[in-house]
Sequence to fold (292 residues):
Amino acid sequence: MTALRRFAFGPVSLARIAWLRLVIYLYVVWDVLMVVTDPIAHGQVPVELYHPVWAREWLGFPAPSPVYVQVLRVVILASALVAASGRLPRVAGAVCAVGMFDWITNAFSYSKIDHDHYALMIALLVLPTVRRARFGDVGVVSEAAGWAVRMIQVSAVSIYVLSAWAKMRFGTWGWANGSTLIWALTRRPNGLAPWIGSHPTLTHVLQWIMLVAEFLSPALLWLRGRALAAGLLFFLSFHATTYYLLRIHFLPLVVCLTAFMPMERIPAWWARRRRVDSAHPPAVPAAPWSGR
Fold:
């Protein structure tokens, strides 16, 4: 029980919660305006096309209408901006979480469900459980903050693990030697995608790397220091490569990976760098004509 408590409630600086709120709530604004925009159009389509996901139906959310989705968008944007500022973190955060859940389930009630928003929704649900946090609260640690950060981390990692498990359910280990990646690369021929798709052995190697990495992703929960940085860099590179080749992004998941980063150290790092730069100013080069 002690080990479990240390894993789930290990104290974390409140300053990290302040940074997470800033990053995640600002991303919500971007997500609603630029990424998941389907709910606005759904307010205009016939209600017969609306088949709510079970959670939306269970919670009694109404079918989309033109006025409803417009008001909902305003509520989400306003609450996200207030929560990002650090003010009213519990109230604004709770309103944003409920509104975003309504928005996302609206988007997913028309046949397509994207798994990349899972970690984002967990983040929005757990952040309001932590009291007000400031960027200067670096030395103030909290078990509540630790639990919120850990839940975001676990939800982010679970996306990778469940993705690997889905491959096992429908393709078994033979998935890694299949043509899924070749199909995706030829369907979305961007950059080097056509060349990679024309080399089956290379695509199989990439699929094995992807599958093994997804199964090993829970190691991020225990890695520390440079090992953790290397693991995060690998997954960030994976997502950057996926976007470059397939134009498929996982921005909600990438944003939630910041829960692994000690962002509360940024001000101290920046201050040290400024002191070093002040102590050792760069040499001023002589004018080109000074020797003439």
Q: What stands out?
A: The two ends are 78 Å apart (CA to CA). DSSP finds 14 helices and two strands in the chain. The first strand starts at residue 12 and ends at 13. The first helix runs from residue 2 to 9.
